[in-house]
Amino acid sequence: MDRRHFLRVTAAAGAGLLVSGTASCATSASSGPVAQTAGTATIQSNLSAPAAKAAIDALVKAFNDKKGAQASVNTVASETFRTQLPSYLTSANPPDLFTWYPGALLKGYEEKGLLLDISDVWQTMGDYPQSFKTLSGRVFVPTTYYWWGFFYRKSHFAKWGVTPPKTWTEFVDLCEALQGKGVIPLGMGAGSDSPWTAAAWFDYFNIRVNGAPFHRELLAGRKRFDDPKVKAIFTPWREVLPYTDPNGTAIGFQEATTAMVQGRTGMLLTGAFFADAAPKDAIDDIDFFRFPIIDPNVPLAEEGPTDGFFASAKSPHVKELKEFLTYAATAEGQEVYIKASSGTVLPTHPGAKDSGTPLVQKGRAHLKEAAEITQFFNRDSSDALQPTADAALIRFLQQPDRLDAILADWQKAAQQVWSS
Amino acid sequence: MTRSSTRVPPILLLFVLVPLAVEGFWVFWPALQGFWLALTNWDGVSPPRFVGLGNYARMLDDPVFHTAATNTAIWLVLFGGLSAVGGLGLAVLLQKERRGVGVYRAALFVPVVFSLVATSLIWQVLYQPGGIFDSSPLADPDTAIYAVLVPALWRQVGYVMVLYLAGLKGIDPGLYEAATLDGATAWERFRHITWPQLGSVNSVVLSVIVIDSLRSFDVVWSMTRGGPYHSSELLSTYMYSTAFQSLKLGYASALAVVIFVLAFGVIVTYLVRAFREN
């Protein structure tokens, strides 16, 4: 869910940090953020959006009402959280639990011995699918996840007389049909504050053309961005560029959402969190379809970013925090969370009920059908690699003819990230 | 004078030394550590690894650093230059007390009151495609830096104007009367009275605009984040994203040192020259 908060990042936090410039590099380790209470597990949370904050508050309240161990939440703006995470973890008195997602960053911290081994919590999670287990390792407990797809309004598609496509050819035909009706077929909101949304397109083309294993290897630095196989995915992308909103690199995610909801664009490749931002009266009208299959021989993969908790190795409240994690992993805990949230997230517990709307049920089935789940560009690689993708992909959208130079520059920038 | 009147009361000493100690511990000491970190590779978690001048050598070979340095130079010249010229011009125009002049002064100063982040958001809406422009100048790598410069200037001009207005108020009106009696033209009065009399204000304005342009960050970060593809990157935004997005704190500290040296260098050079002239 960090993607959602990404959108609400305040530059103010950044500005504040800059003033202290070099200072914050050196002092951050001593600016541990929490007041520890004996016997209470403190959760450092980046869920600062109102709906998400209400959800975690409800979860913690339900946990505390059981009169076992106690927990408390400390909510921090997501950008502050992200930039301060290393200092939280290395401080002498860190918070006990953190909201986060599995991925390269967590693996790095695990290797440095900063994270608590919570494999005994996993003992209570026997009915979780293996995929979540593999993803989490010994240090992470997943609680919710969501899905990506092309979202559209049913009433608009009906008005335009079009239906959702399944194959790539049908998809291109759909774009052409919409353009013929004077609608911009494909929305895009990769402007100033949300360039990362372009990475969804990259991820999907790569997992559709080259498959999820190649995608993960590429993002882990074991393949190159100037590989001919990477270059190949831009061929279908170029094919639909004429149907993509020409202002797609100028407007942000919110404006792109509005454009689609108002029918100026036909559809938008986005995560389910999009529905949270859509007006309430439009929610029932919103549906989505799978990113079209390009090569039927490639096993079906979908993006299913997962969120949850990890714990600090230095925590003095191991018993309490494990009790909390165990509860957060139960169907009950997740149902409490989802009920209080905006409702578009899915529970990771296979037996937990989701919010039950047709959209969410479809989303759950959508991910179940996939043979492979990827997380998202920054989660499968790192937050450090994301800006290299932003630069390369926005440039591709603006200057598609300079692909070779773009991929060469991307590889160079990525190598700098991997080598440091 | 008796001895007791020259002795500093302990309470005053306390008022000076305690803040100094706090400042020293929380600002100077970490800042000094920044210089040390600039010689290391540090991810914020593992112990820093000493690399000598490696971070500085890397800058020479880093295309984004080159863009950021060039943009910072452009920024310094345009943001600094235009705000100084514009601020002085407006101050001279609005110097005379006449009816309604306060309204104009206030109007020009208002942008200074707004948070620059709020200002940026408003300008972002103005720049939106389909508004004033067909396509957003923020999204075009050739124009992004200038599009960000405009709101920054819009704010800074009012600030510099106030500094100059204060300076102009300090000039003895008798000088102008004498010059007018001698038959000096408006330009001659400006050239031989106003400008030399503004000497001390000029050094303040110079320091302010150099420091402000090198630490310009919020306006760029909230409008473009240094994009599209680094085309509007300043040294400050590049330092921030290097430190907190890429977690390369060593390299980012080296960038911070460069910013510091630039700011310090420009100001010290000017002050030394100014003192010599005096």
Automatic annotation (TrEMBL), chain A:
Residues 1-25 form the signal peptide. PROSITE patterns: PROKAR_LIPOPROTEIN (PS51257), TAT (PS51318). Transmembrane segments: none annotated. It comes from the Bacteria. Keywords: Signal, Sugar transport, Transport. This is Multiple sugar transport system substrate-binding protein. The lineage of its organism: Bacteria, Bacillati, Actinomycetota, Actinomycetes, Pseudonocardiales.
TrEMBL record, chain B:
GO terms for biological process: transmembrane transport. PROSITE patterns: ABC_TM1. Residues 69-272 form the ABC transmembrane type-1 domain. The keyword Nucleotidyltransferase does not apply. The keyword Membrane applies. It is found in: Cell membrane. It holds the Pfam family BPD_transp_1. This is Multiple sugar transport system permease protein. InterPro entries: ABC_transporter_permease (IPR051393), MetI-like (IPR000515), MetI-like_sf (IPR035906). Gene3D superfamilies: MetI-like. One of its GO terms (cellular component) is plasma membrane. Keywords: Cell membrane, Membrane, Sugar transport, Transmembrane, Transmembrane helix, Transport. The chain crosses the membrane at residues 12-32, 73-94, 106-125, 145-166, 249-272. Belongs to the binding-protein-dependent transport system permease family. It is a multi-pass membrane protein. It comes from the Bacteria.
